[in-house]
Design a protein that fits this description.
Elements: H1 3-10, H2 16-33, H3 39-52, E1 57-63, E2 68-74, E3 78-80
Antiparallel strand pairs: 1-2, 2-3
Helix pairs in contact: 1-2, 2-3
């Protein structure tokens, strides 16, 4: 996708630049690990990618008093909950 098209697409989403970047990193992780890795393996790889790309994040974050835990909160804006599955 060209930069102009990416910029046009990103303006239609909340935190478009950040979500676009995260999406690209998730695709890289999936290509590296394939469809058979476990959630922990994906999460460790995503953490590495976030660090390499200077994306601030919190990992294994509890959401309120619900007992639910999300894998990542990126830049205090984007919640990422990994659920690997076979297609």
């Amino acid at each position: 996708m060209s930069n102009a098209l990416a910029a046009q697409t990103n303006e239609h989403f909340l935190f478009g630049d950040l979500t676009y970047k995260i999406n690209g990193l998730l695709i890289e992780v999936h290509k590296q690990h394939g469809p058979f890795a476990r959630e922990k393996q994906y999460a460790d790889a995503v953490e590495t990618k976030f660090r390499e790309n200077n994306i601030l994040f919190q990992r294994e974050l509890r959401i309120g008093d619900s007992g639910n835990i999300v894998n990542f909160l990126a830049d205090n804006k984007v919640v990422l909950d990994l659920k690997p599955y076979l297609f």
